[in-house]
Amino acid sequence: MAIKRQSIRKGLLAVMLVLFQYRLFHLFFSPVLIVVAASQGIVNGSLLIYALLFLSSLYFGRAWCGWLCPGAAINEACSLVVRKRCSGGRADKIKYVSSALLAGLVGFMAIRAGGFHAVDPFFAVDRRSLLQDIFLLIGGVAIIVPLAFFFGRFGNCHYLCWEAPIMIVGTRIKEMVRWPSLHLTVNPEACIGCGECDPHCPMSLPVEAMVQRGSLRNTECILCGNCVDHCQAGVIRYAFGIPNRTSSLPRRPENAVE
Questions:
Q1: Quick one: 112 and 149 in the same domain?
Q2: Which of 22, 23, 38, 222: disulfide with 66, CB 3.0–4.6 Å?
Q3: In this model, does residue 246 exceed pLDDT 60?
Q4: Do 10 and 76 touch, CB atoms closer than 8 A?
Q5: Is there a single domain that holds both residue 72 and residue 135?
Q6: Do 155 and 234 fall into the same domain?
Q7: 3 state SS of 44
Q8: Which domain holds residue 82?
Q9: Mean residue pLDDT across the chain
């Protein structure tokens, strides 16, 4: 089951990466087109998609990042040769700055345009060429790969991704309101201390320490299920329901990885 689930997850990521190169799909995630559309008072496909990511996080947390994000597919490929764990810590906050700058720029452009007065999901669909698609793929690889090699696995997700804060906010809301949602459950008493969970976490979280604490709720968890599928004792499991109140939603410990 473990091998099958992770094979399916990686297969989905690969499919999403392929789709990402098609004109329609790529336009739905472009931060540049959000700004261009906002300058004309238009709500484009990218802005609608980001809104949907926020809504999905209210029930599924950051599962998008672990199961469907095209950028995660590139990160997974890097992880085949990069074993370095990402130190995280305060540098994780950089992505909040990039997200806030994008939101501020979109808001500023929309105000200059007199507000949003139209919705066009396919804004600028016919303005791209195959050469531009290739250029954008190379650009994405050129950003993600160096970050992985210099800072560790999934470095882009930790430090630069402007989409992550959108889903982190949604995750915090669902944990605060405590309605039924996707999460990980843990049975600390059953842990045998094998240490298999830590090296398999793509986000370099101190999973074993979190297991001992009795909660795997963490803003950097992307619900990929690696810890679930590599736990020899079956201590960690997926669940959909109201999370236990035993602990608050912690940030990733700054000194988790030396």
A1: yes
A2: 222
A3: no
A4: yes
A5: yes
A6: no
A7: strand
A8: 2-168
A9: 88
